[in-house]
Amino acid sequence: MFILGFLCRRLFQGIVIIFLVTFLIFTLLRVVPGDPARLIVGGMAPDEVVAEKAKELGLHDPIPLQFVRYLGDLVQGDLGNSFIRPKSGASFGGSAYDDPTRGERAEVLGLIVDHLPLTLQLAALAILFSLLISLPLGIAGGLNPGRWQDRLAFFSGSIFVSVPNFWLGIVLSLLFSVKLGWLPSIGYKGFIYTVLPALVLAIEVAPFVIRTLTVSLAQVMQEEFIAIAPIRGLSRWRIVMAHALRNASVPVMNLFGIQLGTLLGGVLVVEYIFDYPGLGLLTINAVLQRDFPLIQGIAICISAIFVIINIIVDLAATAVDPRLEY
Amino acid sequence: MPAGEVILDVRDLSVSLEGSAAGQRLLEGVSFKLEAGEILGIIGEAGAGKTVLARTLVNGLSEPLRVSGGQVVYRSRDLIALPRKELARIRGNEIGYIGANPTGSLDPTVSIGQQILEKLRAVQPDLSKAEARERVLEVLAAVRIPAPATRFHEYPFQFSGGMMQRVMIVDALVTNPTFLVADNITQSLDVTVAAQIIRLIRELRERFSTAIVFISSSLPMVCDIADEILVMQGGRIAEKATPEAITGRPKHAYTQSLLERLPRIWGPEIEAPRTTTASDLLRVVDVAKTYRVRRKGSFAAYNDVQAVRGVSLTVGEGENFGIVGESGCGKSTLTRLLAGLEAPDRGKIEFQGKDLGSLKGSALVEMRRSFQLLLQDPYGSLPARMAVGRIIAEPLLIHRTCPKKEIRERVLAAMAEVGLDPALENQLTVGLSAGQRQRVSIARALVLEPKLLILDETLSALDPVEQSKLLELFARLQRDHGFTYIFISHDMALVRKVCHRIAVMYLGRVVELAANQSLFENPGHPYSRALLSAVPTLDDHPFKTRDHLLEGEPPSPVDIPRGCTFRSRCPIAVEACGETDPETVPWSSDSMVACHLAGAAGLGGPGDPGVRHEGESHAQSA
């Protein structure tokens, strides 16, 4: 019953957020310079072909009208077609405006569905790696404030946060792919290709997790119920595992909801460096090619991911700490 | 009590602060014995080392404290020297511990039943899960927690302080320990709830035959419960004797001074403060305040919390007016309304004949100068990064009541008046004691030359010595400036000492409004009698806990029951109480009571006039 009310409210809020994002992106893309019709038909096309294309796309209508039309398609699950990318998946060069292959454009939804799983796989592995790095460091630091474990956590966090991801990506691929030949790094031909990019992303996210975990665990360890627990007869192991970590995990979970932005930003750079065919690479190319429908589609998709992940995070946090109101 | 086996033998115990140059001793040469089933009371002021002793008895000291000498021998084993593994078998199992802060003692994210179960299974691993669960439920019922099977699954934040302390008692007793340390377990509780807990501890001692070390800073409470008392001063034992000997023939000078400083409440020589008040300063007419709070776990449902439900009172000029009641009775909300921090939903508050509700903008700001609020927490109510002089000057800067040049002069004058060293002017508040901080607050209120000071538990965070000094300061300021005070307090002894008239609040209403002498000698409302019966005192108590103490806790201000709201806990309720909420009627020449049965047979004070009806009482008071 609680869950139902919570979900209703949060999903409604989420839809409002996605709507606002859509509106913002749509408007911004309409006011920046550049003529989509010219982009579609190509530089060689005569002006009348451009005008015809523009009319066909409804580009001369007022922006609000265009937006309503777009929303109408959107609720039917139609994100539009890419301006640039052909259905065949092949890139095109300077083909003429009357080249028949120009007619068939790839659907935005299809492009996203093709690329999203790879990015989700990358993100999941990155989170796993970052937990593997930060849990031991953070727990040791939180349990021994002021001692060397605390300082180790702090220093490693500082180093991780100071390393630029593009530099680390290049160095790691040089080391593991070129010198040692252990891991592949360019493109994607199987799961193993995800490891190196995920590692780079993990190191980008880890310092925040380490810091939050250290601080919140150290704080929980100061609480009265922890101080009194050994007198009540609980073992140190149980106190830390069943009570301290449970309480300290709530801020860490909230952090993941927020750090999603960092993760996605990192995805852009890392996918570009490793030529990893995920959503990040798709975004960069879409922006470079001014592929408006694709940019819009990706923005909507990302805001939806944000909304869903934050709902999950809040649900999980409430499951751990019932004091948090749904 | 049966003189049985010696359970605990503390020998020459010393505890010191590690790292301090002189090796500061917090406990020195403490020795005593505890027999099976005995209750040993330990009394002393703040800083006497009571809590350090309590923690040392269970070998629960944390850094930088360290046992520097002596032994705590529990059944021929020294707990201090015992290896960790063996200690774990005893502590929490044969030895129980209850602390002063029940609400912080359990993990807030796990249900209380689970946590007690976890503890029981940790110390008695042979117990099956079902057996352990049954045992927890049984003890939960034994401490009279209503609906134990439901409450088993509830979380610590769903319990009131008093109920949570019962939970902690269950937590300690569920293993049937031979010996229990109760460290200041009533400190954070209302007097009525504290009295319930004391009664419970006494009952449970009979049932579980547990030896108890009962630590408290309230001498009357310790005398009430203990078989023998240790008086501690500065980490040493000053005196050890029976309660009768402590109160009757104290040997040590410190014990004598403790007894002398004890506030008196009843007795032939006690005289209630009197005043002759000329005119009304503050008139409160039927004010009410309801808060809307979103109901937890619902989509769009709201709870109406009726914090104040129709309070009427007048405060005369130069009067000390007291407002008392248990936590949650609406005292603080009423304070906020009186101080003009919030507007009442209904009714009006007149200050010097002007309706606060009708004032707007600058007129309201100007009016606010005349009444100042002093809060309970001396730490949270002062900005940490501002110098003392600047803090006191702040109101003058806001209200611009005096030229800039004179501000410093006024600040220094105010500091001198409240007894603050002028050298503090440019210092931060960091090193100040609680008493000094309250003086800064008082000076800050003083510079605006207010007429009314509202003291919301202002003195309850201070120790008795500092408290009496500040009371003297308040009295002097009243003589010099003609201040009027409203004391909001749960401390009946304080109210007895300083207030002229007192309002007793219950669930958002004033149930009795009486002059000091009337309230303490001849209370008309059963709730007033219950409050008085719960006050720990060595005086000859006219209201026995046995007859008047309440069980349970007030109903929730969300679901106010029909009829008299006190009915659910009233020892003398009759059928009529369930029908209508009683009107406030005059009870004696200087008191008013809201009770259908005001003064029912045998329960009134000395001048008990028996049951009366509304018409009669009007006639009598006329």
List the helices and strands and how they pair.
The complex is a heterodimer of chains A (326) and B (622).
Chain A: H1 2-31, H2 36-41, H3 47-57, H4 63-75, E1 81-86, E2 105-107, H5 108-143, H6 148-162, H7 165-179, H8 195-221, H9 224-232, H10 236-274, H11 279-288, H12 292-320
Antiparallel strand pairs in A: 1-2
Chain B: E1 6-17, E2 25-35, E3 39-43, H1 50-57, E4 65-74, E5 77-78, H2 84-90, E6 95-98, H3 112-123, H4 129-142, H5 148-151, H6 161-173, E7 179-183, H7 191-208, E8 211-216, H8 219-225, E9 228-233, E10 236-241, H9 243-248, H10 253-261, E11 280-294, E12 302-316, E13 320-324, H11 331-338, E14 346-351, E15 354-355, H12 361-368, E16 371-374, H13 388-399, H14 404-418, H15 434-446, E17 452-456, H16 464-481, E18 484-488, H17 492-498, E19 501-506, E20 509-515, H18 516-521, H19 526-533, H20 545-548, E21 585-588, E22 591-593, H21 614-621
Parallel strand pairs in B: 3-8, 3-9, 6-7, 7-8, 13-18, 13-19, 16-17, 17-18
Antiparallel strand pairs in B: 1-2, 1-4, 4-5, 9-10, 11-12, 11-14, 14-15, 19-20, 20-22, 21-22
Helix pairs in contact in B: 3-4, 4-6, 6-7, 13-14, 13-15, 14-15
Comma- or semicolon-separated keywords:
heterodimer; A: 326 residues; mainly alpha; MetI-like fold; 2 domains; 12 helices; B: Rossmann fold; Rossmann fold; eight-stranded mixed β-sheet; six-stranded mixed β-sheet; globular
Structural class determined from secondary elements of chain B: alpha/beta
Shape of chain A: globular
- Side by side, the strands of the main sheet of chain B go 16-17-18-13-19-20-22-21
SSE succession of chain A: HHHHEEHHHHHHHH
Named CATH architecture of the largest domain in chain A = Orthogonal Bundle
Q: CATH topology of the largest domain in chain A, which one?
A: MetI-like fold
Q: What's the CATH C level of the largest domain in chain A?
A: Mainly Alpha
Number of domains of chain A: 2
Number of strands of chain A: 2
